[in-house]
Specification:
The protein is α+β, with helices and mostly antiparallel strands. The chain is 29% helix and 29% strand. A hairpin with a 2-residue loop joins strand 19 and strand 20. The longest helix is centred in the middle third of the chain and has 21 residues. The protein binds adenosine monophosphate and glycine.
């Protein structure tokens, strides 16, 4: 009999996961909680919030779900995996203890230090005065400094200060004004690293890591990396900076040692290990770990994975990746996020989305912030959808994706026009 799968989440990442899983010959039925109108094309959406672990557990027990896949980080940190496992349910993702690799920057920095995993030099502070003093010791020498709230801060907990005033203000906001609440009780202050950033995605089964693929995100809202940080405005794979030589170094010095360290610390890591790296002149260094797939990176990773992903996700959940075969296509894949004007700040929503019917058949559309209103597809969030193209060359993928993007419109639609340009320029 076919298997029942539950995907937790409602963004473009979850749409890409559902899209890929729907091609599995072993999958009979996919549920998504809460899902979105795009996801509803290949899954049954159930109205349970991703943060309602008890509601999800009751649903999974009732429907006898064979495998649950968790998209976002928050449920992981709150222990959804532990709850499901207590009830004998199979679930893909790290335990709450293991998810600290993303949930606590103090935990992950201390782990890297203890196990010699390359990362920026740092100190941890629980008290603002000493923190500000240390931060200013960089800026006084004319060096930028990076100030990070310990806990989850909706992607906003990292501040790069270039002057002493900015450094003091960042420490004050995090520790005295508590703009990120308890997440700012402790802070990490670290050296500023220079280089090119790359996101590396691996699967880990508690004992070892298997590298899937690398991708590059575009975090700033405007072209040429201008404007405020967002959840990500577009992504592509394969970044030329991630050579096979670098892949070997990252595997040997970062991914395997991290998975081994977590096992040694008594919290074996099972799930996606997403390493945000800076490729510095002294080699790759970890900026951060995430305990989940990236968004929008997943929208360019799923389309280039060969074959069935279900056995892969099951093997991770079972804690044994040894017999799993993984093939990643050499194709280039690019996605461009269509966002609501004003995002990541204030924006209006509810605008009709036009032009999707005229896209070429090979274009993939992954929904994020969409809704159906009066029978019409409308905008319903900051990041509205990811338009994705695959091709044998980066140039073809980019040309195609932007040709498709131009066919779509909604009021105040905004997107970056330079996704993947770095890869293209490097190749010339
Ligand atoms: P994180 O959430 O720790 O990845 O930080 C968010 C972003 O801040 C990263 O993607 C980098 O662009 C930047 N960043 C974080 N740490 C550093 C660092 N030590 N040096 C330079 N940039 C950094
Ligand atoms: N694309 C950035 C993230 O998923 O954290």
């Amino acid at each position: 009999m076919g298997k029942k799968v539950l995907v937790v989440g409602q963004g473009g990442r979850e749409h890409a996961l559902v899209w890929k899983l729907s091609q599995s010959p072993q999958v009979e039925k996919i549920y998504a909680a809460p899902g979105n109108p795009g996801i509803a094309q290949s899954a049954q959406c159930v109205n349970i919030s991703a943060s309602d672990a008890e509601g999800l557990l009751a649903f999974a027990l009732q429907e006898k779900i064979d495998l649950t896949i968790v998209g976002p980080e928050e449920p992981l940190m709150r222990g959804i995996v532990d709850r499901f496992q207590d009830h004998g349910l199979k679930i893909f993702g790290p335990s709450a203890q293991a998810a600290r690799l993303e949930g606590s920057k103090v935990f992950s920095k201390n782990l890297m230090y203890k196990y010699n995993i390359p990362t920026a030099a740092y100190k941890v502070f629980n008290e603002p005065k000493a923190a500000a003093q240390f931060a200013c010791s960089f800026t006084d020498r004319g060096q930028p400094v990076v100030i990070k709230a310990d806990g989850l801060a909706a992607g906003k907990g990292v501040i790069i200060a270039t002057t002493s005033q900015e450094a003091r203000q960042a420490v004050d906001e995090i520790m005295r004004e508590k703009v990120f609440g308890e997440a700012g009780k402790s802070i990490v202050i670290e050296e500023f690293l220079q280089g090119e950033e790359v996101s590396v995605f691996a699967l880990a089964d508690g004992h070892k890591a298997v590298t899937l693929v690398a991708a590059q995100d575009h975090k700033r809202v405007f072209d040429n990396d201008q404007g405020p940080n967002t959840g990500g405005m577009g992504a592509y794979t394969h970044p030329p900076v991630f050579t096979s030589e670098l892949r070997e170094i990252v595997d040997r010095t970062i991914l395997q040692p991290t998975v081994q360290a977590m096992a040694q610390e008594g919290c074996p890591y099972r799930g996606v290990l997403y390493a945000g790296l800076m490729i510095t002149p002294n080699g790759p260094k970890v900026l951060e770990f995430n305990a989940r797939f990236g968004d929008p990176e997943t929208q360019v990773i799923m389309p280039i994975l060969e074959g069935d992903v279900l056995p892969l996700f099951e093997a991770v959940a079972d804690g044994d990746l040894s017999s799993v075969k993984l093939t990643v296509r050499p194709d280039y894949c690019v996605c461009v996020i269509l966002a609501s004007g004003g995002y990541p700040g204030k924006y209006d929503q509810g605008y009709p989305i036009k032009g999707l019917e005229s896209l070429s058949e090979t274009t993939l559309v992954f929904h994020a912030g969409t809704a159906i209103k009066d029978g019409q597809l409308v905008t319903n969030g900051g990041r509205v959808m990811a338009i994705t193209s695959r091709a044998k060359s980066m140039e073809d993928a980019l040309n195609d994706v932007y040709n498709q993007v131009e066919k779509i419109s909604f009021t105040d639609m905004h997107y970056r026009t330079d996704i993947g340009k770095r890869a293209l320029n490097r190749g010339k």
